[in-house]
Write a structure and sequence with these properties.
The protein is mainly β and 251 residues long. It has helices at 5-15, 33-41, and strands spanning 46-48, 53-55, 59-60, 66-71, 79-86, 93-99, 103-111, 117-125, 130-139, 163-169, 173-180, 197-204, 209-215, 224-230, 235-241, 246-250. The protein has 2 helices and 16 strands.
């Protein structure tokens, strides 16, 4: 009997794991990835990439203040943009970060989490490919719809926009850690409209733009931000909220 090599090849093909066909296995369980891929990345080419580190606690002890850190230093290509979102939040987008050549592609920030959710960061390299890092946070819930702690404190308006920060010298760079006094109202509390910081620009002493950061109201009140700048020169931070208030600080 003649051996049918074509049948054997067909059986071997169907025996391959499903992601060997070119599809990618999502590292977290998600029902929303396809939606955000189209909405935020315009359906562009991407890869789930373990080189993009997205660090977050496995459980949100305080759903109003959840620390996350994105680290894309391991990517071989030049990073031009970083987008982050929480898929099941009522306001999913967290930030849109565009680091220049003098800024390390690494960002730490605190966010609100309304319920257990996948967290994503998509990192765009100069070649046009999105590298997606993923993690999952468990949460008891309510971080986005909880009343503001800032607004319950007397005299909070007088401290609006105050920047508290420190610069830590590293071997060939500087780590900036700062906190901005702001309620970051997301509009989900009855009678309180959106009022949040939505723009930040980091400049050097000569006024040259080093990085831009667009923030969304998923960021926690009194937001904490961590950045890393190459070199040790002085930097200036400019901030603006959606009501047009502007703030500046030297770091």
């Amino acid at each position: 009997m003649e051996f049918d090599w074509r049948s054997l090849a067909l059986l071997a093909l169907f025996a391959l794991p499903w992601d060997s066909w070119g599809a990618q296995r999502d590292p977290v369980t998600s029902v929303m990835w396809d939606y955000y891929h189209e909405r935020l990345l315009d359906g562009a080419e991407f890869v789930f990439d373990e080189q993009v580190k997205l660090l977050a606690p496995p459980f949100a002890e305080d759903a109003r203040q959840v620390p996350i850190e994105v680290d894309a230093r391991a990517l071989p290509g030049e990073v031009v943009r970083m987008l982050a979102w929480a898929e099941l939040n009522p306001i999913p987008q967290i930030f849109d970060f565009q680091p220049g050549n003098e800024v390390v592609p690494r960002l730490a920030i605190r966010i609100r989490v309304e319920q257990a959710t996948p967290i994503r960061v998509a990192v765009l390299t100069r070649d046009g490919l999105w590298h997606v890092g993923s993690t999952h946070i468990e949460a008891a819930g309510g971080g986005c719809s909880a009343p503001s702690v800032v607004r319950s404190q007397p005299g909070w308006e007088e401290r609006l926009g105050d920047v508290f920060g420190k610069r830590f010298a590293l071997a060939d760079s500087s780590r900036l850690r700062l906190q901005i006094a702001h309620p970051m109202d997301n509009g989900l509390i009855s009678g309180i409209p959106e009022f949040f910081l939505n723009q930040a620009v980091l400049r050097d002493a000569a006024g040259k733009t080093l990085a831009t950061l667009e923030l969304f109201s998923a960021v926690s009140e009194n937001p904490s931000i961590g950045l890393e700048v190459k070199g040790v020169g002085e930097t200036q931070l400019w901030l603006r909220d959606n009501n047009g208030n502007e703030f500046e600080a030297a770091l």
